[in-house]
Design brief:
single chain; alpha/beta; six-stranded mixed beta sheet; globular
Length: 273
């Protein structure tokens, strides 16, 4: 059996590896669980560093138990010492100390294709990160190829009001000024059409979509950032990875199953082209 595996490994192309650094959601709709489902959907090998254990379900978050910063960094070192990570995302950073520890580690040992999803509040409206985390996340911006805030997260990171397309573009520029290589400000909270604003290579792209008639959803931001990281891990350029990820999330929203008594989780079994 071992010889057979060895023979196959010599003829097969290497399997791309994507890494998620995020919190765990025991109900499976968001966080690590959603990220790993997304990686699998895109045909990449998923690795995971857990930053916090959450007590939550589709109805809301009951508790958040952060993992110690040194343990998070030790997990990260263990994975990257062994696996050829080609794309990565950071989701829930539970406190400023974790943000500082990750920034220090990434300065010394960068991760390729790193996407930052600045998770501060769950879809239910429950807080996930400690006070001061939004400001602390700014130290991570120079280490990422893309940051993907929604409107409230963009406002928290920039300290300005972000409620329309012009403000979204201004917030994206402010985040680039703080060190981010590119910014995708998600427009799901806009009152009419959910237009995203991507600032990449100095150009602003307005990415239009249609709103899916689902009252509450769970894990869309996690899935989007994981899908982008998966695309980068497989060699797509940034715009290609973002475009494919947005199509995937839209389909997963349309197919969202009616599970639980709260926000619907996405269906990660949909097409990924």
């Amino acid at each position: 059996m071992a010889a057979d595996r060895s023979a196959r490994s010599g003829s097969e192309p290497p399997l791309p590896v994507a890494l998620t650094v995020a919190g765990s959601d025991p109900s499976g709709g968001a966080g690590i669980q959603a990220d790993l489902k997304t990686f699998h959907a895109f045909g990449v090998y998923g690795a995971a560093v857990i930053t916090a254990l959450t007590v939550q379900n589709t109805r809301g978050v009951r508790a958040v138990h952060p993992v110690a910063a040194d343990v998070i960094v030790a997990q990260l070192d263990a994975v990257t010492d062994d696996l050829p990570v080609a794309g990565a995302k950071i989701g829930l950073v539970p406190g400023p100390d974790v943000a500082a520890a990750l920034a220090d580690r990434l300065t010394r040992r960068p991760l390729p294709g790193l996407v930052l999803d600045p998770v501060l509040v769950a879809g239910s409206g429950d807080a996930l990160s400690a006070g001061g985390t939004a400001a602390a996340l700014r130290v991570l911006l120079p280490q990422v190829v893309l940051v993907t805030p929604n409107l409230p997260e963009a406002a928290a990171l920039t300290g300005r009001r972000v409620d329309d397309l012009d403000a979204m573009a201004d917030a994206a520029r402010a985040l680039v000024d703080l060190g981010a290589a590119a910014v995708l400000v998600k427009g799901g909270h806009l009152p009419d059409r959910p237009v995203d604003v991507l600032l990449a290579g100095g150009a602003v792209h307005r990415l239009d979509s249609t709103r899916v008639p689902v009252s509450r959803t769970h894990g869309t931001g996690c899935t989007l950032s994981a899908a982008i990281a998966a695309g980068l891990a497989t060699g797509l350029d940034l715009l290609g990875a973002v475009s494919r990820a947005r199509r995937f999330v839209h389909r997963a929203l349309v197919a969202a199953p009616a599970l639980g008594g709260g926000a619907r989780p996405l269906d990660h079994r949909v097409r990924n082209d």
